[in-house]
Automatic annotation (TrEMBL):
Residues 4-161 form the PatA-like N-terminal domain. Residues 257-315 are annotated as: Disordered. Residues 292-308 have a biased composition (Low complexity). It comes from Euzebya pacifica. InterPro entries: PatA-like_N, T2SS_E_N_sf. Residues 274-291 have a biased composition (Pro residues). It comes from the Bacteria. This is PatA-like N-terminal domain-containing protein.
Length: 315
């Protein structure tokens, strides 16, 4: 059995790892006692999600069928009465199919939506613990029918808590860039999401991506969160500088207006001030030319020298 804390290893990271390792078992997400949340269980078979169960925070299957599939409320009430009369705890979906009120395909779509809503609860967990029990039997054999990255992206589309998204990404000023450890990324995106994707370049913040794509900031953050949960993008802190930023820092030249500098927190940018070259060193002065003698110097003969010494009165 494996376990850990969600603060250190979020649900999306744990789910991606279990999918990569093709694990079979049940992932238990255990809330902290003071949070008031309930346990969420996600069953895996060979690395794929088969079902997910939460006591609260998601719609019941009948509610989904009424809201999304057009099942009349009266028909659901009749099916619930029939379920209560059936022995052995028959599931409401089987009762609805047996009564001819929904078909198997409609039921499968509703179950898939319920699993994704439960997975959204799991992805949105910020605190608590997780525990994986290997080889635990799958409660119901209703596979989700999509890869892990697609499932995490779909679950993130259902997140209704902006504070969860902001906490996971670091706020609307966070900058994201592409980066995945998985070489085989399979992700189904909508046309509007593809438009947002084109503005992810390692420089634009989430707020800037929303502005450029003409989308609501909360919707953009939800999409970016899904890409982050799927491992397609990663958060950059601080924003990556552009080439123009680096050039401006190095040579002190920029076409952009100079940023305002607060006296209490001066900008630490490096500016290189050009220094004029030193004046050239003059060559050393040349010595004046020596005058050549016009005649040979006189040479005193040895006889005259001795004559002078002989006449010296000191002798």
């Amino acid at each position: 059995m494996e376990s850990g804390r969600l603060q250190n290893e979020p649900t999306s990271v744990v789910c991606r790892r279990l999918a990569t390792e093709s694990r079979t078992g049940c992932l238990h997400l255990l809330p902290d006692e003071a949070s008031g949340e309930h346990e969420v269980r996600i069953w895996f078979r060979d690395g794929r999600i088969h079902t997910a169960v939460a006591q609260e925070g998601r719609r019941r299957l009948g509610e989904i069928l009424v809201a999304d599939s057009g099942l009349p409320q009266g028909s659901l009430d009749r099916a619930l009465d029939q379920q209560r009369r059936e022995p052995g705890g028959v599931r409401i979906g089987d009762v609805l199919v047996a009564m001819g009120l929904v078909d198997r395909e409609t039921l499968r779509d509703a179950v898939r939506e319920q699993i994704l809503e439960t997975l959204a609860l799991a992805v949105g967990r910020r605190h608590g613990a997780w525990r994986f029990v290997p080889d635990a039997a799958v409660k119901w054999d209703v596979p989700l029918g999509s890869g892990m990255q697609d499932a995490l992206m779909e679950a993130s589309r259902r997140l209704d808590a902006p504070e969860v998204i902001a906490w996971r990404l670091g706020g609307m000023d966070a900058v994201v860039d592409f980066g995945s450890d998985d070489a085989d990324v399979r992700l189904s995106l909508r046309a509007r999401e593809w438009a947002m994707l084109t503005h992810i370049d390692g420089r634009n913040s989430i707020a800037e991506i929303a502005r450029r794509a003409g989308e609501d900031p909360v919707t953009t953050a939800r999409v970016v969160h899904g890409l982050h949960a799927a491992g397609v993008v990663h958060v950059l802190r601080p924003p990556a500088p552009t080439f123009d930023d680096l050039r401006a820092d190095l040579v002190g030249v920029s076409d952009r207006p100079a940023p305002a500098v607060r006296p209490a927190e001066p900008s630490p940018g490096l500016v290189v001030v050009p220094v004029p070259p030193p004046p050239p060193i003059p060559p050393p002065p040349r010595p004046p030319p020596t005058a050549e003698p016009t005649s040979e110097p006189a040479v005193t003969s040895s006889a005259a020298l001795f004559a002078d010494l002989a006449d010296d009165p000191a002798d």
